[in-house]
Please model this.
Amino acid sequence: MKHLFKLLLGSVPFFFQQAAAQQLLARPLRTDAVIAVITDEEVAASPSFRQYCQMLESKEALGVYAVAAQWKDPDQVRNTLMDIRKIYPGLEGMVLIGNVPVAMIRNAQHMTTAFKMDEIKFDRKQSSVASDRFYDDVDLKFRAIGQDDKNPLWFYYELDESSLQSIRSDLYSGRIMSHASGATRVQEISRFLDKAVAARNTKNPLDQMLAFTGGAYNSESITSWMHEQYALQESLPPVFRNAKGYRALHFSMDQKMKYRLFSEIQRPGLDLTIFTEHGDIEKQYINNPPSGDDMDFSVSFIQQYLRSSLRRAAQKGQDSEQAVTAMIKKYGVPREWFEGAFDNDSLRIADSIFAASGNIYSSELANVKPASRIVIFNACYNGSFHHPDNISAAYLFGDGQTLVTHGNTTNVLQDKWTIEHIGLLGRGARAGQWSRIINTLESSLNGDPTYHFDHAQSASINKMLSATQSKEYWKKQLAQKDIVWQMVAMRRLFEANAKEYAPVLRKIYDTASSRNMRMEALRLLSLTGDANYLAVAGDALNDPYELVRRKSAEWIAKAGHDQFIPQLLDLLIAFPDDARTNWTASRALSVLNSDELLKQIEAKKAAFSFEYNNQELYEELQKLAASGKRDAAETLNGILNKNTTEQARIQKVRLLRNMYYHQLIPQLLPVMADATEPVELRKNIVEALGWFSNSYNKGLIIDACRKLSASNDTPEILKAEAIQTIGRLQSWILP
Model:
């Protein structure tokens, strides 16, 4: 391999005519399983880079196609990858090392789990999604719209309306990106590559893990926290073979949990860490603000909060005196409680320390050595590889053992099924292969995507995941007793023919003892919305696994079937302590038929008569029905009201992206088709209706959009939106 690098350094493959500056560093010695290593010229000159590529060939049994360039834009990289794939159909993934351009995606928020920022109102730096789906999902089509003025590696793209509208990554990808300057950048990447090479010299099965849940996440549901442990036990049996294998920490165990975590993530032998918490680019939110029982603490806490709020207001350019006056009026506090906000350095530092005590910052990790090979952030923004000082890079480039992080570049849905297919990691699947199966637009795998834990099935499972297999093959895997293989088979058979295998998935849901298999069956069935889904959705509200109950309630809201109102009420009555499930079920009831809900509340009065405060519960349910009816009416009236501003009407339309008022659709379609209405309003209605991917009114929406797109009188911008909405409604999109 060393000779191969010397031979090829500086040469250019004949098929890369669009980029003569590219350096081909290595061609694959084997072609059945190929990895593309894309890097820049400075990193390519590093001995560590060569050693990493050699390791992929010798230890990972991968053919390596390594190429370097001063890449001008993501299109150049994507075209290179497509050329490699044409020559080597065995290409299974890529590693993007160093200054490889970043695609900032727009017009594709439906492919995220939760990101819904207004792309017109907010700057495109904020309202775009950094995503390597640009590289690893070859069927998506984009159009370039420009380079960022301050971040030269950022390039903005819009998803083309005629593109496929859901993600099914063909390849896996991983980022190794340093934001250091000059030679330090190459040194930082080289140290990481050395760590990746050294890791292959030690056998490391996945038999120790840490799971942490932070404050204010998933409604702080203890049931959710407990039940995830049961599901993990099914997926990763070796972790639970002794007391040291699994540690589950909850923020409520310690008011200064961050310091406990600093110890735990350094524990020798730790393999996998899952953080479930709120996050930001540079920090992990660990604890809620400290609390106390005495008056002095309470007063001190309020004063600290007021001073911090005043400083934030000043940073945003607000007048300090006006901010003080507003907070005095709002909270009824004395003016002296704001004293020292700006002119007392000791107090300012103390406030800063107080605020920081509940968070982990990327700068702090320089003093910590994480032992975990893989770290998963079920959190907003913790995977923002494209920003300096991102928390993900702090784990990767520090002095610890971390080789892979998985996070998100924007906010992410709290109710995401974080541990979906997690058993693959325990069976020795490459981190990239696991990530590829669960990719969303905002998800990001950083580090070495080829890394995997040691397991006897590692070679066979990676071959299974990378190769194209027949339906007969997947039927055999479905008959296995291993849920990890069975769940992959369920996915592959569904992708091959959803209609044919929906009855099979229904049977699996009805008969499986595995929480994970029932969850996978429900998730796949919910994508169809067919009779098989309707047959299990109600039963799923009474499933022993909390996540199944919660997601069933969420997906019923997206489908809109009033027939499930009684079961949703039963859920609220039966599981009053399931905080997150109660929130989800209440939200679902708020978008369903409020008149039917009121009838069912009356019918259920006897069922909750055992409640000590049953009258209070009765009144709360009535309020839920009343507020749902009121909010739906206000939304519709706000959209139809021609006496208000166009922007005010559009803001009401945007509410439909989160609140699925299915009953309003027949009244919105005429507005969408009305040529006398403002084009931007009509466009926003078309876009909003694209979120109703499982609605019982989906057929009406598709028919209306087809008429719009076929009409010569329809403005092109509206026609394009109609085409995209049709594509969205015919795709499989559920977080």
The longest strand covers residues 91-97. The chain is about 45% helix and 10% strand. Residues 2-198 form one domain. The mean pLDDT is 95.
